[in-house]
Amino acid sequence: MAFELGVYHFGELTPDPTTGAMMNPGVHLRHLVEQATVADQVGLDVFGVGEHHRTDFAVSAPAVVLAAMAQATDNIKLSSAVTVLSSDDPVRVFQQFATVDLLSEGRAEIIAGRGSYTESFPLFGYDLSQYNELFAEKLDLLLKLRDENPINWEGQLRAPLTDGDVTPRPDRQIPVWIAVGGTPASVVRAAKLGLPLSLAIIGGSYQQFEPFVDLYRRAAAEFGHDPKKLAVSIASPGFVDTSKQTALDTSYPYFQAGWMQNHHQRGNGVPMPRRAYEAQATTAGAFFLGGPQEIIDKTMAQYELFHHDRIMIQMGFGNVPQKDMLRAIEILGTEVAPVVRKEIESLKSSQE
């Protein structure tokens, strides 16, 4: 596949770090649709929307938001980021994303994960002690729903399906990615199933994640899959502006506020001093933070290490103002993406 660049957003409702004002959820949802529209217009490849079930996030139903985006865009792929499959019903997940896929004429994707935010488990009546078992069983069902209709299926944690007729059916097989945050067992699960890997790198040095990508490809080969046909995506926070200094100055107050107030351990945020944030913007840091050239350089450095297929930038975490978000998306699409695609294509050609 050609190298892809995308953006994702959790829809966090972080109070403004200067005024303390809280954005209306409806306004924020409409902002997300506008962001996806601009991302489509400037030629980005993917827009992703997260799923959270708390008052400090606007998006609890990503498929509904993606359906709105489907009507406002023409080419961009529309993905969850992620679907908390362990606490959802795979039948409804499939139906919802099949609907998005039909509305968008074949642009829907699912990134399935276990969920680092766990509020949805008690909310929907699931036992957190079955965290791993729920995901494994529901992923098995989701993949069978994708591949078969009618479906006959039986598990341990859900009622069986006998000649289940699950509709609507999409016109193609919807891509299902596995989200991994650094657990080797999850990497091996994706490899065993022959599913693409979405690797979240949200801190530290990205080089420390090379063993996970290597494990994924080795395990895939051992399970009989061609590693060259399995895609790898790197997902990290970031922000793009006209220069590195501007990117840092614009995004840091919001990121710090979001890191403190929208953390997965509610009420127990993680301080992010400015010097630590700037460290993530260095060549070895995990974040895509900087002007166009810094983002190009980091993407290419990562490509040399991972030989991956996609980057997804969690742009403007903490509710960076919309005008700044739209500018960042435009810069990513017009000044970064064309250069990255050309350089990676050139590298691939020289290695053939």
Describe the fold and architecture.
This protein is α/β, with parallel strands linked by helices and 352 residues long. The protein has one domain: Luciferase-like domain (TIM Barrel), CATH 3.20.20.30. The chain is built from 11 helices and 12 strands. Helix 1 links the parallel strand 1 and strand 2. It is globular. It starts with a strand and ends with a helix. The model has no long low-confidence stretch (mean pLDDT 96).
First-last Cα distance: 15 Å
CATH superfamily placement: Luciferase-like domain
Helix content: 40-55%
Total tally of structural domains: 1
Radius of gyration over alpha carbons?
19 Å
Q: Characterize the quaternary organization of these chains.
A: single chain
CATH topology grouping:
TIM Barrel
What structural class should be given to the helix and strand makeup?
alpha/beta
Q: Quick one: overall form?
A: globular
| CATH class membership | Alpha Beta
Q: Characterize the main sheet.
A: 8 strands, parallel, barrel
Number of helices: 11
What is the average per-residue confidence, as pLDDT, rounded to a whole number?
A: 96
The total of beta strands comes to 12
Q: What is the string of helix and strand elements? A: EHEHEEHEHHEEEHEHEHHEHEH
Strand content: 15-25%
For the biggest β-sheet, the strand order reads: 1-2-3-5-8-9-10-12
CATH architecture grouping? Alpha-Beta Barrel
